[in-house]
Amino acid sequence: MGRLRSSIFAALVLLSLAPPAARAEEPSPAAPAAQTAQAAPAAGVSIVDAWLDQAALRWRKHEELLARGDREGAMAAADEAAVFLRDEGIGRCPPLADAALAEARRASDPKAAIEAAVLARRFDPENGAASWLEARSRWRAGEGIGASLAPAVRAVGIRLTSFWNLLSMVVGGGGILILSLFAAFSAGAAAIFFAHAGRVAHEIEERLPLGWHAAWRRSVGWAIVLAPAAIQWLGAFALVAWAVVIVPAATRAERRLIAFFLLIAALVPPATGALWALGRAPGDPASRAAIEAAQRTARPGLEADLAALVAAQPREPLWRLMQARFVAARAPEEGMSALREAMVTAPTEPRLRVAMGNVFFRSGKRETAAVWYRQALDLDPKNVVAFFNLSRARAAELELKDSEDALAQARAASADELRRVERETPPEGVADPLVDPREAARRLAANEAIPAAKRALSPANPVTFAAVGALLAVLLLGLRGGVVSAQTCVHCGRAFCLRCAADERGAEACTPCQQLFTRREGLSPQARQQQARLVDRHIKRLAIGRIVVQAVWPGVALIHEGRIGIGLFEAWLWALCVAGALLPARLGPLDPAAPLWKPGLLFLVFGALLWILFQTPRWRPTAAGGRGGR
């Protein structure tokens, strides 16, 4: 060991005696301090933008060599850009990934497309489109399904598990689900209204003074039934009023549908408000900056967005921890100041002390850095990053025994984590403390999204109050059972009751239709012909109407017919498919480089198959006036 130390010391002495020009020509690519000095921008310039500029220079070299036909040199230049990003601790570089993806799409040779797609995935592992294009290119190159399946599965996994894509799908899917349920129940309530409006109008007509003209009584009855149309400008209030008006004439199954409709109407305002509050995060640059910084992303404007988040939530130490990495690379003193402020609010957070040690290490103060790493280990005795950085700090001071001991303790704490840190850290450099994107997401949710969602869930909304009041009215009316004695003739569709005809209670046909179909006396030949025309016109109108409604909105005609359960199920599935097809952006990824397919395409295909199924005899209305129809 003593001989090894003497050899290292002699090498260092010879290096210190080398002329400055010689050392300037061959900088050590592994030295983090030298890298920071090379990448450090002028005062006031974002360090992230400086890193992107240097990566872009290497990528331009790749493009120039590729244009000259030197593919081997071009790939070496691209590899140099990837190594530079790794050495600077950058895990994702979307600008370079987009450039490599564009190159892959332009390539006519499948093998060249595969190389460019692999490069794009190397620059940004979260880019699902790169893996998808790699799978397609391998298939075009004839490599078989085995070689194409792995990148395809990886692409779908990224599409479904990427944080922003997942959040977008959850929020957008929740909104589409609420919209489809409300639309389906609204359509069901409308179908029930059209089925029973004549009965309610007739019941009102029969309760008016008999001295009034029949036309006036009929007009007043329909005017009362259609009165909610006068407040249509109030939106949901008109639907709520109509639901209450029609309840006395509805059957038990129909009342349940109306009750569920009013319940959904009461829940829609707070539920959509909560979803809107959760969906604000993807559109907020500061919130996106928190997740991207945790993923070690380099994009233009990231440092400014992160600074805005720190200003908005100054007592959150996690944001200062991520910001300190960028600030310290540009101005170490400012980075130290930010970390000290964070330690005041979170004195037991070991990662803050690891970050402080990194600032000192990269400034050349390795002994001081080791002190901060030991403080982090006092707070977290199994912190692999602190052990690893302590090992590097002691090795830099030629304390090789201490370095080996620290590395052994890191391996004992977590061998897998140590291998990851060694793989992502440049030689003789130190690792930045890891911030899990899920942790950043939880902090964002706890600080912003959840409080906003709780405020939005407040029932203090006029529509909610009106729907709850209407729901109570429906429940009270339902206790009385059927309160409308008027019936609708199954043959001619006219409303009738015991007060206007001597029919038995529960009869399905009015007196003229009974006399028409039983051939009893009471109708003259002319009246019989007129009644037959009324019946034929009603059946024809009802049949055509149900066919058209079933074609436009499957299920609504079944509700009108009286088949509530299956009709509501059809109406909801159709509303879900239409909402998903018309609002594809609600279910699409927020990253424009990540989509693998058009989000609305699946809804279009599924909706077309459902529409064909719902036009078959089992799933469509029966013949008008037939069994099961009104």
How would you characterize this protein structure?
This protein is mainly alpha-helical and 630 residues long. It has helices at residues 2-17, 20-25, 32-39, 47-67, 71-87, 94-106, 110-123, 128-140, 144-161, 163-206, 214-225, 236-246, 252-283, 285-294, 302-312, 317-330, 332-345, 350-362, 366-379, 384-396, 400-413, 415-424, 437-456, 462-479, 511-518, 525-552, 556-561, 564-582, 599-614, and strands at 487-488, 495-496. It contains 29 helices and 2 strands. A two-stranded antiparallel sheet has the order 1-2. The longest helix has 44 residues, at 163-206. The radius of gyration is 37 Å and the shape is elongated. The chain starts with a helix and ends in a 16-residue tail after the last helix. The relative contact order is 0.10.
Which regions contain 5 or more consecutive residues with pLDDT less than 50?
A: 1-44, 589-594, 625-630
- Spatially, the strands of the biggest sheet line up as 1-2
Based on secondary structure, the structural category is: mainly alpha
Portion of residues in helices? over 70%
The number of distinct helices, counting runs of at least 4 residues, comes to 29
- Overall pLDDT metric: 77
Q: How big a fraction of the residues is strand?
A: under 5%
Number of strands: 2
Report on the biggest sheet: 2 strands, antiparallel
What distance lies between the first and last C-alpha atoms, to the nearest angstrom?
99 Å
Rg computed from alpha carbons, rounded to a whole number of angstroms: 37 Å
* Approximate shape: elongated
